[in-house]
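Appendix B, example 12.
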Amino acid sequence: MAGHGTDGHPHGADRLCDAGDRVYSRAVRRGRLPRRDAERVPCLLELALLHPDPDDMDWLVPTAPQEVMTRLLRGMYDEVSASQRRVGSAVEAFEWYAGLGRQVPPSPVAAEGPAIRVLDGLARIQAAMDEATQACTTEVLTVQPGGIRREAELSEGLHRATALRGRGVRMRDLYTHVARHGHGLLSYLELMGDAVQARTLDEVIERLILFDRTVAFIPANAERTMALELRHPALVEYLGTVFERLWRLAIPLTAPLPDTGIEGISHREQSIAALLAEGHQDAVIAERLGISVRTCRAHIARLSETLGAASRTQLGVRIAQTGLDGFRGAAVTLPGRGSPSGR
């Protein structure tokens, strides 16, 4: 473990590093240990978990776990007390400001509702979405990450989409390329007809639904049980611009994906190769492309076989040699193969 001091061990006694945990545990079991055994874990001395043996300074003895626990609890109590005092001060301050606000007539913007509203719970999210659907008259833009769309997800918003189509509202949806393999999505688009256009990309941003360029909905937590309703004109315009730029880069769902130009490597594997070259782990790549980790690893195995790589390190070298790290897709000669033909 390189370094000495807290820079190399940024933690407290309640969450020791692995090396510190092993050394402190050994000291507790044995009653003491040689000072040299703790040279690589200075955090134990800095946190007073070990201290010199007064009878022999070449040895260290552990602070009793009960004493450590008492010290931690005392520190936590002090932190909680300080937080409670800050909360009390903040409440008093905002009560004061709220009292001042009652003396000022509301502005036209405030009368229309908050620019950012937090929707906590699926029921509130659904209600707000239904309200926005009823008010929508022109267009709906959506970004739908996560790969193949489940039947339940498509059915959940079908009543809104049907109502919008009935009023002549145009809809544009962005998905990942993986969504092309979902029968439910194809059935949904066939049902909606010309009212909906769909395009796909290797990866898209987090979920977005934008009504009439006036109100947008985005997730507020990873579980998507909370959402933000955005009505601030600058925010909504920004999200609309992001959508339009992604839309121009995307490929219509009715058009085939372009050839990679490299024999034996699919478009998806080309995307995986580019993300591997950026240093991403399998789970991150899978999430970004909307596939399972198992599927991602199967593609990586095929990439290794096609490129003649016996290890991940060698795979990285082969990806760079073939230009897959830059996603150029140029025709190249793979190791041990002839010149590839276009697919």
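The CA atoms of residues 136 and 212 lie 6 Å apart. The chain is about 45% helix and 15% strand.
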